[in-house]
């Protein structure tokens, strides 16, 4: 019945059906689960329960004579003070001059409007004299398209609830609903659309938050189980003696976090199931060393390895470091789009003949011409920069190679268990001994000259500096520093005694390579750049990172940029130049100066920006929940994950009769999956 066309609902004619279709509503079920995006309530709440900028209703006594003033053409402002409990609240009404005659000092009034927490002020949109009724209705407000009337939508949803409530299946087993004191599904659905009280609405939301988190986590856990059981991987019987000798030959001691992550990876390699693991760690925590050891393990087991990175600069850097590490132990080659002709043919032939053990490259690795003889281990670095198809294409070049994804963007636990819920996750949450934290300072724009003097002082000591800005060319829309102008300015200040380079995303790859190589070779002392230096580039002699218009960047991006310095033995500095106007921008600057911990920063970034913006707008992999919020409702997400894992592990989902409806829903309902699954 719920899958019937929306046209079956009382009150839905052809025109309305077409309009509702535009909202994505085609069936009765779509209509029933089209939840309000907010609720207007004229229920009086205590000031202590109000949140900044929300629409609120408060009640109090007018304790000052209402003052009326005029401005512009026929515009008016009426202000008065309300005594609400022990607080004095300023009330402002625009263009309601008539109210001056209706409101007097000593009157009790109920006002509704936008609440300003900081100023203890309410901008009144509605008012009425006298005390409010004890029980005011809570009105649902839906997202609408032009032509659809709010009251019309409310009526047809009410008709659907009246006629189809009996057909709504309660998909949660009774024991779960009782354990968490959740209302049944039909009751919760009624309360979502027509809440009787705030408390009942809260319980209805709790029900659907848990339900959609549980459905999503069950799908992720099932996918994980499917990947493990249905994809036969390669058992990699690596040579433990050779591996131990290699680790002991490294010029550094592994941290306990590196050892733990390496043990988890090696354990996967010994298993008959294909590895599907995410290795995440802070900037400079030593992920590459762990990945290199795992690559070598695969080589001792008789397989080839591939390392795919997002940029040619990074590919070149990894190639040189791996070549040095594996000197005399393994043959390493580099394949990027810039390598052409005879050299390219030679590399491709050597890979196919297994004369090359490890191939490092960019997207060039996934082209059809690249054929491995015996690919056993694949590493994808900065995996959120690759599309799903690119990752799958590389993986498919081996029969069932083990796959390790790496990211230097510390991902908050909330997002890790959601976006990567189908993967095993290893975390390197410890920095190598002796690494000095980068000193970070936030300075206002008027101190630019002092910053430039500081750069000169560091250069005089033989060091180098990055100067980062967000735009390449001047923008009419945004008054922020741009790379080309800044390069011209700094060139006139520092040259000829100090060489200045420029790098940005519009340069050809060969030009970028050339500039970066000059900087790495200390031929350039200052590198002016957009965020193209954000990922992975290693110049230990660079000790200063200056970021212009720092308020334009998110915390994670600022932290990534800061990670370009502090790679040598000398003390390094990150200077944030910016004049943020809003509280969020100021908070971001403050947090950056207080911590160097990328995981802590990522949690703060998530709170400030929300899940949708954390990876950037185009990031696929995060489901859009209708009711739940991954940050705000994190405990419910954790509970759902734990319950889903138990159901899969104990086979209750598949074999317990009480879970039959839930099982049917999980296997049939695809709307929550979206793009999440690779």
From TrEMBL:
Entry-linked SUPFAM superfamilies: Nucleic acid-binding proteins, P-loop containing nucleoside triphosphate hydrolases
Pfam families registered for this protein in UniProt: DEAD, Helicase_C, RecG_dom3_C, RecG_wedge
Keyword DNA repair: yes
Span of domain Helicase ATP-binding: 268-428
The reaction(s) this protein catalyses: Couples ATP hydrolysis with the unwinding of duplex DNA by translocating in the 3'-5' direction; ATP + H2O = ADP + phosphate + H(+)
Signal peptide segment: none
EC number, as in UniProt: 5.6.2.4
Keyword ATP-binding in annotation: yes
Residues annotated as domain Helicase C-terminal: 447-607
One example GO MF annotation: ATP binding
Top-level taxon of origin: Bacteria
InterPro entries: ATP-dep_DNA_helicase_RecG, DEAD/DEAH_box_helicase_dom, Helicase_ATP-bd, Helicase_C-like, NA-bd_OB-fold, P-loop_NTPase, RecG/Mfd, RecG_dom3_C
Keywords assigned: ATP-binding, DNA damage, DNA recombination, DNA repair, DNA-binding, Helicase, Hydrolase, Isomerase, Nucleotide-binding
One of the GO biological process terms: DNA repair
Entries under PROSITE patterns matching the protein: HELICASE_ATP_BIND_1, HELICASE_CTER, TONB_DEPENDENT_REC_1
Functional summary from the UniProt entry: Plays a critical role in recombination and DNA repair. Helps process Holliday junction intermediates to mature products by catalyzing branch migration. Has replication fork regression activity, unwinds stalled or blocked replication forks to make a HJ that can be resolved. Has a DNA unwinding activity characteristic of a DNA helicase with 3'-5' polarity.
Family stated for the protein in its record: Belongs to the helicase family. RecG subfamily.
Protein name per its UniProtKB record: ATP-dependent DNA helicase RecG
Gene: recG
